[in-house]
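Service request form, structural biology core

Requester: graduate student, group of Dr. S.
Request type: structure prediction, single chain
Budget code: on file
Notes: please return the result as structure tokens.

Sequence provided:
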Amino acid sequence: MGLYLMTLLKPIRLFSIFLLAIAAAACSSSNDKSYTIAETQFGKIRGYVQDSVLIFKGVPYAQAERFMLPHAPERWDTVMDCTRFGCISPQAASRKSNPYIPVDTALFMGENCQNLNIWTPLRKGNDKRPVMVWLHGGAFDYGSSHHHLCFDGYKLANTENVVVVTVNHRLNCLGFLNLEAYGDKYHGSGNAGMADIVAALHWIHDNINAFGGDRDNITLFGHGGGGVKILTLMAMPAAKGLFHKAIIQSGTLEGMTQTAEMSRRVAANTIKNAGVNSAEDLAVLPYDSILAASNRAIDGLNHEFKTDITSRIRFAPVVDGILLPKPVFTDTSANVDASIPLIIGSTFSEGATQYHLTGNDSEAMPDVHMLSEEELDAELGKKFGIKKDDVKLAFAMCYPDRPLCEVLMMDTIVRSHVLRMADLLLKRGDAPIYMYLFCWVTPLHNGHMMSFRNSEMPFVFNNPENAEFARVGGTEANRLARIMSRCWASFARSGNPNNSITPFWRRINYHQGHTMIFDRDVRLESYPDLRLMRILQPELVKDIQLD
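Core staff response, request fulfilled:
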């Protein structure tokens, strides 16, 4: 564990001897809602009972002053009400959301956002359940533990007999503004958001047995930025031993970390833009003023260095030599814990169709399925140039059942990063790695939305009814949700996703990229799209072997 984080988290660890069990008694209120009491290391909390699942929301796991590393919450003497979600990290309100993945309308922001949520089935005897900890996406900039309704852990916990935990933590300038040049008390400020997650994992380790969970069997799973957070934790000494398996969904290598030098420039320009002279002056400004000043700083540096999408400066963990000693990935290696079993994968079209055909987005692209043969050929030429014919042939080989027009909307960036990360991680150690590709197509808009970014989420949580695009899939979507949630839970239980309702899923090796295709027919293929990625993203996949 890094020196500074170890010092500040010491109070959390000292309380672990006071771990107590759930008080099993439930009582009825005037509205017939049943409640339950649990006693944690810091005090009693009140949750509620939904059918056979105990639910606790907004449970504080740490606290922190602005820009400081987290420390243990103060102990409370009364019963804390934990029946509602806690506040989420402050963030820009203008972030675009996909209308087909409903957002929780009850979200409220506050800087005291170090809280988590727990869903646990009623205990039967003294059995311990695997723990699945969800880290939300949104890069390091936005999002929350309950941003989308499909993040609800009730059904996953109930059907798969697992404990589900979702975590809030600091984001953007509150979590990743590196002010350590302005005094010792700001050491670690560039990684405060990641330190929050480490503090949450310590709380889970010290308390989760009381909720029927097994602290020695914890799996992290996360989408997009959540997947990148997991990879970052795998490279942080402070997180070692706090989780045992990981599932990375649509994570990329882009914007994974900042250098210490660049993060200091962002901080200096933020202070200048805010019109103040010191970090202390910055710390007392309203959040919106700090965010605006830091965004201007980032935009200015991106303009100065003429960065593109792959090199863009953004809020991200800082390679500070302490909390994060080395970059998570280099061109040739992965600096991560090689003992962690992994599931890693992405969706067919990712962001290309995330807002496609929504009817209310000025940036939505025309429906490629409506192109004539001549128009399609012209668009293929525009996008792929002299590679057009090679792309057409490779796409037909990789996806024989999909119309050619969909190559225009197929994701190449995230997928090639997944292939690259899987290859580097495979070479890093002997831990099993399982790869997947989500290809299920919603019936909405005649299937033309394809398999967009985040579209696997209702299936992972077994909540297809909580998202319109999945709900209209009927029994087909329900079956796929049962399969995916079962795979994720089986992996959390044993480090192996295989189960009685899924085709046999082989781990990847040096020559065969066994990939589970989650579609109408769930099937295993070997590197189904590598030939295509070698044409479109040769630099990222050039070292991957193909039989």
